[in-house]
């Protein structure tokens, strides 16, 4: 453990909930319904319900583990403490690498909504640098900016829902096919795997456990509350989109919310939706930078990443070396990465991360458990099931990156023994 400056506990319940909302209500809600509709048609509503159940199981596991281990690092720490160093490393490595790819994806999504194609990659890099600078200045500034972004995004979603339903094109009969998913139950499960990407942000609260006041009370309250709000928002948005557009139209659109608003007489609201999508991508990117920085800090403290990354700024009390390194890597990725591949790879890493969290929660003694043991068992099984639905290239690349990380740790341990 580092003996230098430590992170400061500055976040209350509201701040923690807002950071969770900023992590989840990101660009996914503006784009994920298209791929989900291609997999399951109107049956994406089943996929949304499955993804929400798996997310709830994961959230309860993360919450009760964070109450027992209120320090930075999230499942990396829980895996080490409950299952052993290798489990923790695989969870942390999957999170850091997968979410670094997500940072690039969110930056590119913001730029796609904000500027013409020729400017998108430079603007994406500029957004990464700007938000890394906000995080560098302290976690309270991160929470304050996230609160503003969440307010803008929720307002844009409200406008999209009202415009879609009031624009004259809404027809509830379009929902009739929800019980017969395109592609059958496999299609529904595949849509769940795709939609899970849009949910995977609630653990950001747990990864920042060292900066939350009264973590044993705050974190178990904040995680389910943030997830519950997001489930309601996503459900309302999904039903709205499917009543305005038929499943084929949703499947064929890269921006289904904008398409739903543009289909009716309230097409003046399309720029509002686009602005909301850009703000959502920024909110997700801001929270990702904070979460990855804290997990990198925890791993560096145990020498699972270079010790240089364990530094905490003496004034701002943030892992400034980790955040600077992350910003540099993401700036490189935005000029080289494929957006769709980044999403699939990120889903693989996140599902592995939550699988470890659920297995760790199963091992907690009765006095530490706040929920029945069958919930983390169901969550672990759900993570494996959703991984099985991911495109095989994402799974193959994910396994290769995990193997590379494991090789790095094994080599470091051999050198340390010598």
Brief overview, please?
This protein is mostly helical and 418 residues long. The protein is built from 18 helices and no strands.
Could you characterize the architecture of this molecule?
It is a single chain. With 418 residues, this protein is mostly helical. The chain has a single domain, classed as Up-down Bundle (Amino acid/polyamine transporter I), CATH 1.20.1740.10. The protein has 18 helices and no strands. The chain has helices spanning 13-24, 28-31, 33-40, 44-68, 75-82, 85-114, 120-136, 139-166, 184-199, 203-207, 215-244, 247-251, 256-262, 270-301, 320-333, 339-362, 374-389, 392-417. Helix 11 crosses helix 13. The radius of gyration is 20 Å and the shape is globular. The two termini are 22 Å apart. The mean pLDDT is 83.
Total number of β-strand segments? 0
Task: Please report which band the strand proportion falls in: under 5%, 5-15%, 15-25%, 25-35%, 35-45% or over 45%.
Answer: under 5%
- Looking at the overall shape, the CATH architecture is Up-down Bundle
Overall geometry: globular
Distance between the ends: 22 Å
Q: H/E order of the elements?
A: HHHHHHHHHHHHHHHHHH
Helix content: over 70%
CATH fold-level name: Amino acid/polyamine transporter I
Mean pLDDT: 83
CATH C-level class: Mainly Alpha
Profile the largest sheet.
Answer: none
Helix vs. strand class:
mainly alpha
Number of helices: 18
Quaternary organisation: single chain
Q: In terms of per-residue confidence, which ranges show pLDDT below 50 for 5 or more consecutive residues?
A: none
Q: How many independent structural domains?
A: 1
The named CATH superfamily: Amino acid/polyamine transporter I
Rg, nearest Å: 20 Å
């Amino acid at each position: 453990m580092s003996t230098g400056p430590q992170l400061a506990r500055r976040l209350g319940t509201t701040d923690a909930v807002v950071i969770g909302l900023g992590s989840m209500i990101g660009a996914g809600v503006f784009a994920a319904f298209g791929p989900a509709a291609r997999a399951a048609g109107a049956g994406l509503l089943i996929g949304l319900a499955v993804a929400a159940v798996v997310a709830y199981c994961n959230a309860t596991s993360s919450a009760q583990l964070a109450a027992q281990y209120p320090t930075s690092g999230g499942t990396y720490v829980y895996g080490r403490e409950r299952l052993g160093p290798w489990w923790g490393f695989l969870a942390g490595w999957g999170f850091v690498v997968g979410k670094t790819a997500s940072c690039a994806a969110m930056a590119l999504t913001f730029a796609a909504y904000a500027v013409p194609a020729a400017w998108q990659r430079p603007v994406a890099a500029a957004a990464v640098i700007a938000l890394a600078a906000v995080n560098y200045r302290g976690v309270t500034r991160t929470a304050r900016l996230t609160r503003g972004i969440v307010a803008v995004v929720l307002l844009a979603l409200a406008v999209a829902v009202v415009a879609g339903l009031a624009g004259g094109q809404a027809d509830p009969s379009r929902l009739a096919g929800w019980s017969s998913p395109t592609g059958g139950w496999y299609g529904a499960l595949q849509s769940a795997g795709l939609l899970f990407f849009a949910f995977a942000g609630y653990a950001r609260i747990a990864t920042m456990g060292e900066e939350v006041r009264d973590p044993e009370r705050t974190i178990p309250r904040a995680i389910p509350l943030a997830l519950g709000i997001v489930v309601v928002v996503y459900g309302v948005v999904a039903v709205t989109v499917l009543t305005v557009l038929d499943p084929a139209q949703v499947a064929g659109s890269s921006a289904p919310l904008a398409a739903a608003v543009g289909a009716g007489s309230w097409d003046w609201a399309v720029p509002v939706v686009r602005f909301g999508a850009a703000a959502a991508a920024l909110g997700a990117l801001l929270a990702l930078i904070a979460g990855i920085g804290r997990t990198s800090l925890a791993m560096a403290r145990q020498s699972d990443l270079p010790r240089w990354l364990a530094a905490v700024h003496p004034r701002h009390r943030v892992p400034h070396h980790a955040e600077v390194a992350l910003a540099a890597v993401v700036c490189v990725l935005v000029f080289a990465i494929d957006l769709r591949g980044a999403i699939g790879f990120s889903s693989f890493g996140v599902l592995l991360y939550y699988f470890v969290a659920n297995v760790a929660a199963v091992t907690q003694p009765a006095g530490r458990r706040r929920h029945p043991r069958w919930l983390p068992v169901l969550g672990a099984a759900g993570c494996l099931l959703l991984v099985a639905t991911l495109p095989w290239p994402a799974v193959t690349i994910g396994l290769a990156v995990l193997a590379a990380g494991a090789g790095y740790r094994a080599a470091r341990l051999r050198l340390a023994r010598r």
